[in-house]
Amino acid sequence: MKLIPITFAGTLVAFALTAHAEDMPGMKMDDMQGMQTQAATQQAPAANAEGTIKTIDTAKHTVTIAHGAVAALQWPPMTMGFAATQEQLSGLAVGDRVKFSFRMEGSKATLVSISK
Fold first, then answer.
1. What is the DSSP annotation of 64-112?
2. pLDDT digits (tens, 9 = 90+) for 80-107
3. pLDDT one-digit tens code per residue, 10-69
């Protein structure tokens, strides 16, 4: 009798589970990846900060803010760009002091809210 190494057996189990997932009726693997991305986005906590607006780009829907430390993310003070909606940018000007919350989506920071 020949013993199968655990690493090989683990690979077989992983392969079998993957094959089974692909065969689920009515469920495409693309749907699963979309749900995982959505769940990760929903789980990303919002961080709060205060800072001063340095630039606003209404064409690219971005705002650059020099902000203080962000304790929730253990970040030091820095200047960085944030994705924003046109509505969020409305009424803001370079030099405005703001309070804002944002989420990290991968390496992209997106505003959740912003106020003077």
1. EEEE--BGGGTBPSEEEEEE--HHHHTT--TT-EEEEEEEEETTEEEEE
2. 999 999 999 999 999 999 999 999 988 9
3. 444 444 444 444 444 555 555 545 555 555 445 578 999 999 999 999 999 999 999 999
> Could you give the CA distance from residue 62 to residue 42 in angstroms, rounded to a whole number?
21
Q: What is the CATH number of domain 47-115?
A: 2.40.50.320
Note the pTM of the prediction, 2 decimals. 0.64
Question: What DSSP designation does 7 have?
Answer: H
Q: Which two tokens stand for residue 109?
A: 């920071």
Q: Which helix (H) or strand (E) holds 35?
A: helix 29-43
Q: How far apart are CA 23 and CA 16, in angstroms?
A: 11
CA 105 to chain centre: 1
Residue spans of the domains in the chain: they are: 6-43, 47-115
